Amino acid sequence: MFDLPDLGKDLEEHAQRIDALKQELHDLYASFQASSLFAAMPGADPGALVEQAQAKMREVGRKLVEELENFQLVLRQRSREADQRLIHLARAQQLAQQRLREEGHPEFQEDSDGERGVPQ
């Protein structure tokens, strides 16, 4: 069933992985900028450097998208679990109120005006 500490742990783990991938993309971009300076040197193959950098960025970008999709799935699942828990709690509350009415508790009895509660 739904457990808030587990939810917090799941969310934190996904957030850490997403942050790590974002940092990796940032580092790759910085590395690409630095390699652009070397590409201008005589004998360097700028096309190969660009292709390598683009391939790495695409791979990290794919991982980031995958992690975001996984994160979204976890959120949807947790949301369904929370909805089920709320339905369960609402039903339990209804049953408890019904039992209190049946037992004659004044807070759950209606007066002649159709109002509930203890007369003032």
From TrEMBL:
Keywords linked to the UniProt accession? Coiled coil
Q: What ranges does the record list as Basic and acidic residues composition bias?
A: 99-108
Residue ranges the record marks as coiled coil: 4-70
Q: Quick one: where's region Disordered? A: 97-120
Descriptive protein name:
Uncharacterized protein
Q: Which organism is it from?
A: Buchananella hordeovulneris
Q: What is the lineage of its organism?
A: Bacteria, Bacillati, Actinomycetota, Actinomycetes, Actinomycetales
